[in-house]
From TrEMBL:
Highest taxon, organism lineage: Eukaryota
Domain FAD-binding residues, every copy: 49-288, 370-405
Protein name: Ubiquinone biosynthesis monooxygenase COQ6, mitochondrial
Cofactor(s) it depends on: FAD
HAMAP family: COQ6_monooxygenase
Pfam families on file: FAD_binding_3 (PF01494)
Pathway: Cofactor biosynthesis; ubiquinone biosynthesis
EC number, UniProt record: 1.14.15.45, 1.14.15.46
Assembly mode: Component of a multi-subunit COQ enzyme complex.
Subcellular location, record wording: Mitochondrion inner membrane
Catalytic activity: a 2-methoxy-6-(all-trans-polyprenyl)phenol + 2 reduced [2Fe-2S]-[ferredoxin] + O2 + 2 H(+) = a 2-methoxy-6-(all-trans-polyprenyl)benzene-1,4-diol + 2 oxidized [2Fe-2S]-[ferredoxin] + H2O; a 4-hydroxy-3-(all-trans-polyprenyl)benzoate + 2 reduced [2Fe-2S]-[ferredoxin] + O2 + 2 H(+) = a 3,4-dihydroxy-5-(all-trans-polyprenyl)benzoate + 2 oxidized [2Fe-2S]-[ferredoxin] + H2O
Keyword vocabulary terms for this entry: FAD, Flavoprotein, Membrane, Mitochondrion, Mitochondrion inner membrane, Monooxygenase, Oxidoreductase, Transit peptide, Ubiquinone, Ubiquinone biosynthesis
Protein species of origin: Ceratitis capitata
Family matches, as InterPro entries: FAD-bd (IPR002938), FAD/NAD-bd_sf (IPR036188), Ubi_Hdrlase_CS (IPR018168), UbiH/COQ6 (IPR010971), UbiH/COQ6_monooxygenase (IPR051205), UbQ_mOase_COQ6 (IPR000689)
Amino acid sequence: MSVLIKASGLGPVRLVFKQLSASRALSLSTKYYAETDTSKQKSSAEHFDIIIGGGGLVGTALAVALAKNKVLSDKRILLLEGAPPFRGFNVETQYGNRVSAINGNSVELFKSIGAWDYMQERRVKHVKQMQVWDACSDALIKFQDEHFAADVACIVENDLMLDAMYAQLADKNNMPNVEVRNNARIEALRLSVDTGDNYSQVHLKDGKTLTCELMIGADGANSLVRKQMNIDVFSVDYERRGVVATVQLEDACDNAVAWQRFLPTGPVALLPLSETLSSVVWSTTIAHAKELLDMPATDFTKALNEAFFKEYPKDGVVVNAMNTLNSLIGRDPNILRQYPPAVNDVIDKSRASFPLGFLHASSYVCSGAALIGDAAHRVHPLAGQGVNLGFSDVRELVKVLADAAYAGARLGDKHYLIKYEQRSLAKNVPIMVGVHGLHTLYSTTFTPVVLLRSLGLQLTDTFSPIKNLFMKRAMG
């Protein structure tokens, strides 16, 4: 069911409610299994303790983390990936346009599975400071590494993270219990709650049949595993797209600051990669995103510099209120504000775009199955939290499964899986609600909203305890 509403000053917002009935969710599986003798399927099926559907960043991290856990080291794990084998990462090649801002918790996960040193030896950019400001009011907030135990964040290419994890999986002496199968697509799936026994059944498009005690859905926002679990999904189509690109800076510099400016059409971020290169994540309207992708490199560069340096019209009420606040707290915004480095070129073929939206599953688990990453939740990239929430899922799920194995319980025991859901929800929901709220607040130029958000941003920056609490929750 799709509902179109119009919020004051926000334009149309499409709310999509997805509910898959059990009969519809099982139609494909029922058709397949109705034509096949069940006992014959079980006898000929290859069995695994855990099957992970989806070999992206989060699914691959889970496979490595499970294998590295001493309590789970005797469990047979299969990672199913629909894409061809990963081609690897070459540090001599150009920076990729798919990068992530990794927080402290994610770094600790990578350290625990032996992948962090591998990344550090190649190219990881440590962010020492972040500045966020509003184009409609010039309200700003700054974060420095002094607010954290380590860096504000680390910028890492997605392909490098995958390469580091696949390097771990390739070490069969230390990880003999994990198998990766590429070009492996699921045609039909019956979970243990459907089969009536302790095993889920997976039928692949190549004709092979597999069984497992626990099925993990790491297969993205359109998760087949989630549909088979018959779980309701709440989603919001932001009707925006994110444009990514790799850009060349005008002058070489230390380039250890992440910049984000909220424009009337959405936020634009400049993330450091090296002394001369940065990554762009620009959230904007669908029409404008198409223009940014199609325009010549010189025009794109000009538009990007304008996005960071252009003076936008400001409402007099907001300006007067901000001046009064700054006077009361003894703050001179002109002294505090810094400006990002200018961009003089965009790397050829580095521009791409993706749709923006919000998604959250009503539950992450059922008996014999669990969801992680984008299969369970999806957020706007404005705070860089998407993949970090997925890595947090990995940490919590591995802990719960280790507890279940240690106690002699089944890995698919819902009593234990519920603990994973509760812990992940406690971490994910506040961040997701906060990010969605920020998107809503900064998607309008309505004067009262601009006034409130500007005063709130400025006050948060002024009071260190509030700012530190916010960043510790968001960054690790």
